[in-house]
Task: structure prediction
Amino acid sequence: MSYGTFYAVSTGPGNPELLTLQALRILRNCEVILYPETEKNTIALDSVSEINPAQKTLISCSFSMTASKEQSASEYKTLAEKCTGFLKSGKDVAMLSIGDVSLWSTAARAAEIINKTGFEVKFVSGVNSFSEAACEAALSLCQKDEKLTIIPADAYLIEEKLESALKEEGTKILMKMGKKLKEIIPLMQKLNLIQNAVLVQKASLSDQKIFRAEELLKMTEEDFENAYLSVMIVKS
Amino acid sequence: MSYGTFYAVSTGPGNPELLTLQALRILRNCEVILYPETEKNTIALDSVSEINPAQKTLISCSFSMTASKEQSASEYKTLAEKCTGFLKSGKDVAMLSIGDVSLWSTAARAAEIINKTGFEVKFVSGVNSFSEAACEAALSLCQKDEKLTIIPADAYLIEEKLESALKEEGTKILMKMGKKLKEIIPLMQKLNLIQNAVLVQKASLSDQKIFRAEELLKMTEEDFENAYLSVMIVKS
Result:
């Protein structure tokens, strides 16, 4: 009996229609599906409603955002061991990833660990949430000679690198803002960037919201609560 | 009778399986399909083979890469007029765009012009070619505190900004390299970046090629000919 394959599958920004035909085919063929679950949502799982998840072996996985390096390594090790059990018995395993799996994805990291233990892994590409955010705002991100910079804004703010990153030329995308969004908006005001900014929350989902320019200054507490699923587009 | 809608539709990197379900549904409903055609390929059209293009009104469009601002404006004006004819008669029009439409896309620019003349336009997101390139190379682009910069390398080389852009922190993606790839590789050698680089040509297509590290120094004339459809990933 041959071993199963581990697929790190991008589900796109959340709307089930934004799955690719390839992701759909692969998910239909996988018996075991791992999905990230946070306190607030199971968006990745909801985004694959097309495949009838009830017929699959579903495994929820959560990663603590604030884990130490050691704790994080241990969480991934546990996850990898769970997967290799299935793979050894010949079952294909898919791990879901919101957006595209090549960008800051736990599924990609899990795939790398599983691959090192000798199993075949495949990455399945998908629609980035910032692409969908731009489309929902009917915005072209860059002119043909402009660059695009995608910034993990929480880490950059903490390391005091966000201000200089925002001053660079080209279009900037701020992601992973989380609770820092409340500090990022005043920083953008200070840099005179509010006029150039659009925030898209929950792009492609039914409760999507778009805040353009001064609307960013009128965000409510509830809006800030949803910051985890927000993408900020800042044109130069 | 109501007017038609203009859709700027992302087809993904080229493989028909990388179309989203949403793009497929919209393309099936559009009577008129515009597709970019170059001397060398009709990749966007080939990527929508799922929709049976023969039943559609197909319109090829080409844009001169080296056009002056005036000539380019005139090309877009002609295209927009062609579309508004169909839209006025109530027909939905889709214009295809390889990769994702929010990044350097002629379809997005056409949509903006058509929207200004009062017609409804919609942007349909898709898989970026650099996402697929990373997946094909089984690479995670960034760690969680690293930024990603996507650079139109031809323009940056001409403006002598490529070297400093390559020296920035985080992962760099070079796109739109075209004939400049031959000059970019020696520059990367000078900057000691060859070891960190992977070039993916025609990502997702049957004649895809991947060049890792020193393999970049052994590229043939034919490989350089295909540079238009190449994505260079440079890890820091």
Chain A touches chain B through 60 residues (CB under 8 Å).
